[in-house]
Amino acid sequence: MLVTQKKQYALRAIFELAKQQGEEPVKTSTIAEAQSIPLRFLEVIMGQLKRAGLVDSKRGFFGGYTLTRSPDQIRVGDIFRILDREDNVDACMACASKGNCPFLGGCVFMDLWDRALQAMDTIYDQTTIQTLIEQEARLTGTNE
């Protein structure tokens, strides 16, 4: 699972939602400002996350987004897979698309790329949003 800018933004958005989790929905402008995400790009990402059921939204002046699951039940890999499905990603680490690879079927590096991807996927799936919140608290010396 390659980490694109879009995936980084989605991860930061979910992270910010989790940090601000409460009774009130969080506005996209608040998320965008806190995590330095371009607002228009964030709106597209939040739409994808909503369609996938990871976030819910409320319209209106007091509207915004909320998580549909607790931060300890959301894995980084979950977020990345949602975006891969939405974007129809089918790529290997070295090629833009496996279908266009001139070495497809005979690539000496394919096993290396696949093992590296599996290792990354394992780390992403072992890391929850709650883990990241706790790590930030340790790094900044705050207890949230």
Automatic annotation (TrEMBL):
Molecular function as annotated in GO: DNA binding; DNA-binding transcription factor activity
Lineage: Bacteria, Pseudomonadati, Thermodesulfobacteriota, Desulfobacteria, Desulfobacterales
Keywords (A to Z) from UniProt: DNA-binding
Name recorded for this polypeptide: AsnC family transcriptional regulator
Pfam families the record matches: Rrf2
One CC-aspect GO term: cytosol
InterPro entries: TR_Rrf2-type_CS, Tscrpt_reg_Rrf2, WH-like_DNA-bd_sf, WH_DNA-bd_sf
Lineage top rank: taxon: Bacteria
Species for this entry: Desulfosarcina ovata subsp. ovata
